[in-house]
Amino acid sequence: MSSTPEETNHKSEKPAAVVAPETTAEENPLQAKADELGARGNEYFKEQNYEQAIALYTEAIETCPNERFYANRSFAHFRTESYGYALCDADQAIAMKSSYTKAYYRRAAALMALGRFKKALADLEFVAKRCPSAKDAQDKYTECKKMVNKIAFEKAISVQHQEKSVEKMCRDLEFATIEDDYTGPKLENGKVTLEFMESLLEWYKKQNKLHKNFAYRILCDMESLLKTQPSLVEINVPDEQKFTVCGDIHGQFYDLLHIFEINGLPSPTNPYLFNGDFVDRGSFSVECIFTLFGFKLLYPNHFFLARGNHESFNMNQLYGFTGEVVSKYSQNMADMFTLVYNWLPLCHLINKKVLVMHGGLFSKDNVSLDDLRAIDRNCQPPEEGLMCELLWSDPHPLQGRVPSKRGVGIQFGPDVTEAFLKYNNLDYIIRSHEVKAEGYEVDHNGKCITVFSAPNYCDQMKNLGAFITLKGNDLTPKFTTYADSPHPSIRPMAYAYSLMS
């Protein structure tokens, strides 16, 4: 896609004229004002200040609606991962001008981001036919068609895959001999130790790879452990003990190391909860996930992992984790991760008073903690229902519920939060899932807290990262923020599906 909203990917496509050549600003002052607002929005977009760009495009639309402003706002929403809003704006642009090629392109991008490739393919086919000499358009149409065929093939064999557990897959593997020249970390009698974890962190810092023998063993042991856990895990934090909650990491391994540097390594006296989205986008997702899985195996009762919306097959295919695993190991290992992720718990309850989930609350009233305990999570996330909403929903400042800006889940207001807490006798909720400028945000009268732990997300958002600490006898959250850490010059999304990178 183009680097700014006003640029074109197709030589044959030109931005739609807003004011006819014979119309002057004096004759159409509203259009002139809207054009000025749109141009200012484009400048903010170039600076990656997408929220301000959206505000200016919105003002331009309110002043004098035009399909170009809707398409530009769609692109800005896309960059903030508000794919539902991006779809709505692209639809509106197409409704205003059915031949506006760029709007189809924007809609296709949002549909692909949500894994809806068949619908995206129809839009890209329209663009490709309109722009037969545009290589970019033809390439994206071809790639999307390949993905549609790939998904159809994988669905055809999915039953066969689901019948295999990771343990069975490990037994089917002929583990390679550990070469004499391998000097990296080694499991002791097949088990993770503190020495192994300390060695692994140093090994990864130097951009080395864990031997596949040990990587497979960690996956096998993780599946066995996670199968024993419920969908809602209860955590008891002793009175004076510190407990740390981290949000999205998204493959930013060197920022994960920084958390451990400033807050201490996990231990029985320094427990952690990582609240989903460990992988994708960042190009050190393999290092992140084996670090987190290793600590979970080392301290199963003091280190906790929740599933995020990116611990799923579609997201991993699109946003880089699958490509990274295949590049560093094999497709077989990528398949194993898919099966292990299905067993990750969906939410955690701290001292019976604080509920932690990746996304948010629900589209119906009177959801109980027992309802969450009863979720059968061993599957790919559905597009609706409690599991979907735990992984995808977001808070918003207005009362009630509205459709999700992402196109999946819902947005819920302070009254929804208050009612849920009262119904379940809880103090507040912690969730992640959204980039925040300060790394965290407190909403809904202090009852809904967002924590996001990937600073300068994707090397472009300029946000701080944050984590939360609390004590068993004082559940008041305390926030620690930090800037991003230097990392090797491998760009984010380096392993992502070509249409998304």
Automatic annotation (TrEMBL):
SUPFAM superfamilies membership: Metallo-dependent phosphatases (SSF56300), TPR-like (SSF48452)
Cofactor(s) the record lists: Mn(2+)
CDD domains: MPP_PP5_C
Active site as annotated: H310
Coiled coil regions, renumbered to chain: none
Keyword Transcription regulation: no
Ranges of compositional bias, category Low complexity: 15-27
Keywords attached to this entry: Hydrolase, Manganese, Metal-binding, Repeat, TPR repeat
Extent of the TPR repeats: 34-67
Top EC group: hydrolase
Region entry Disordered, spans: 1-29
InterPro entries associated with the record: Calcineurin-like_PHP, Metallo-depent_PP-like, PP5_C, PPP_dom, PPP_phosphatase, Ser/Thr-sp_prot-phosphatase, TPR-like_helical_dom_sf, TPR_rpt
Entry's Gene Ontology molecular function annotations: metal ion binding; protein serine/threonine phosphatase activity
Span of domain Serine/threonine specific protein phosphatases: 210-486
Hydrolase recorded as keyword: yes
The enzyme's E.C. designation: 3.1.3.16
Family the UniProt entry places it in: Belongs to the PPP phosphatase family. PP-5 (PP-T) subfamily.
Name under which the protein is recorded: protein-serine/threonine phosphatase
